[in-house]
Amino acid sequence: MTLDAAYLRGSMAAILSVLQHSSCPENVIFHFVASSSSSANIDYLNLKLATSFPYLHFTIYPFRDSPVAGLISTSIRAALDCPLNYARNYLPDLLPQCIQKVVYLDSDLVLVDDITKLAATPLGEEAVLAAPEYCNANFTTYFTPTFWSNPSLSLTFANRKPCYFNTGVMVIDLERWRDGDYTTKIVEWMELQKRMRIYELGSLPPFLLVFAGNIAPVDHKWNQHGLGGDNFRGLCRDLHPGPVSLLHWSGKGKPWVRLDASRPCPLDTLWAPYDLLQTPYVLES
Q1: What pTM, to 2 d.p., does this model score?
Q2: Which Pfam families match (predicted)?
Q3: Is the CB of residue 284 less than 8 Å from the CB of residue 266?
Q4: Smallest Cα–Cα separation from 224: which of 238, 208, 203?
């Protein structure tokens, strides 16, 4: 997970949910990535985690955000343009070489199932990552007319059946990523985006360009996403049909903000029991 002061409240809830629903929480190891721009920031995050979770196995890895900052193009929501949002692109370089496989999680989610089940997702013989796919989404909308009208660019997905997937929940084979130098491939798309705008939505499209159509499947119950509402109006969302193992408040609205404002969406009450920080919101009995 990435870690910063602005989303720390969400991260703490996510950590607690992982531990509470794990059959062997003592075997869960957390790898956090935080901006290296302030050593005091990392010291604060270290102290906060250590005091909140005295027995937690974790390491915080510093992330130099200045190089990636120059690659970021403005998107539809300012929060998506934070350099730390792009740290997932560099995980194989940030984490020790001995770590071969990880589960990547966003900070605005909670698990209600054992994470070891998700970690055990088979990647097959070639896939670099696994994630729930949503093939009913209109894939073309994630890229601009400039992209689709350029023959050399639109052929990117030739011989692939690309589907949208949310990058907030992924099982990643770091060894295969390193062998295929996929960080370089993602960066090359970001560099092209700076020269000719080919997408609108933050860090997601480069992942789609590189991996869509070539990922291992994960059951949709492991990413009930979109609970934060849409990026413009922040409307409340319902759960997708079917079982739930992970609830994800992707989108504009975050549950802790809405709870503090006494304007929660119905599903925000499912996040509230994992909130370790004091809030003025009181759950009704």
Answers
A1: 0.92
A2: Glyco_transf_8 (PF01501)
A3: no
A4: 238
Please report the DSSP string for 42-75 in residue order.
HHHHHHHHHHH-TT-EEEEEEE--HHHHTTPPP-
Secondary structure of 209-243 as H, E, C letters: HHHCCCCEECCHHHCECCCCCCCCCCCCCCCCCCC
Answer for the pair 275, 256: CB distance below 8 angstroms, yes or no: yes
Residue 78, burial from CB neighbour count under 10 angstroms (0-12, 13-18, 19+): exposed
* Strand 57-63, strand 29-35: pairing: parallel
26, amino acid identity: E
pLDDT digits (tens, 9 = 90+) for 3-34: 998 899 999 999 999 999 999 999 999 999 99
Confirm if 248 and 224 have CB atoms less than 8 A apart.
yes
In this model, does residue 79 exceed pLDDT 70? no
Measure the CA–CA gap between 197 and 194, rounded to whole angstroms.
Answer: 6
Q: What is the pLDDT of residue 213?
A: 95
Query: Of the candidates 52, 219, 212, which has an alpha carbon nearest to the alpha carbon of residue 139?
Result: 212
Q: Which residues pair with 246 in a beta bridge?
A: 111
What's the CA gap between 78 and 168, in Å, rounded?
Answer: 17
Helices vs. strands in the chain: H and E counts, helices first: 12, 10
78 by DSSP, 3-state: which?
A: helix
pLDDT at 82: 85
CA nearest neighbour of 120 among 208, 186, 27: 27
